[in-house]
Amino acid sequence: MIRKYNKLSRLMGIDYGFKNIGIAMSDLTQTVASPFSVIENLSFRENALRILEIVDKNDVSLIVLGLPINMNGSFGEMTKTVYKFINVIKSFRDVRVETIDERLTTTQVEKMLINEADLSRRERKCVKDKVAAALILQIYLDVHISGSRI
Questions:
Q1: Quick one: how far is CA 135 from the chain centroid?
Q2: Phi and psi dihedrals of 141, rounded to 5?
Q3: What are the chain's domains?
Q4: Number of C-alpha atoms within 13 angstroms, CB side, residue 57?
Q5: Which pLDDT tens digits describe the chain residue by residue (150 residues)?
Q6: Beta bridge mates, 67
Q7: CB under 8 Å to 81, separation ≥6 — which residues?
Q8: Are 24 and 130 in contact (CB under 8 A)?
């Protein structure tokens, strides 16, 4: 199904981690996801306020959060944490939030940064969260916006 959100708006992808939160942004045509930034995970409240500030500054119409589902399909502690974070965001504002299964995205990003980008461990540490967010968002765009199947 091809869905476009608000015309000329961006979609935001988030890779929520205990230490850092990776953020990605789509282009205005909602076709391509790009790494955007990494913010330090401080508290649900502070994180939500910073995310909403980025949403406002970049005309974001939808937030896509990676949902860390266990390999057996069960929900672990981090999955519950992501849902709590979504509830905090929505407590401040009625913003569209969707989730997407992010199993193995971090592994994919690590392999890509090592094999294709040939980055050192220190360089990978600086970019992996926002690249993971871009991968999460690109998967969403490919499946839900452009209508292609993975």
A1: 8
A2: -60, -45
A3: 10-145 (3.30.420.140)
A4: 8
A5: 445 555 679 999 999 999 999 999 999 999 999 999 999 999 999 999 999 999 999 999 999 999 988 788 888 898 999 999 999 999 999 999 999 988 766 766 566 655 665 656 665 555 778 989 999 999 999 988 766 544
A6: 101
A7: 16, 18
A8: yes
Q: How far is CA 76 from the centre of its chain?
A: 18
Give the closest residue to 35 by CA, choosing from 138, 149, 146. Answer: 138
> Which pTM does this prediction carry?
0.83
For residue 89, what are the CA distances in angstroms to 52, 62, 93, 101, 115? 8, 12, 7, 19, 36
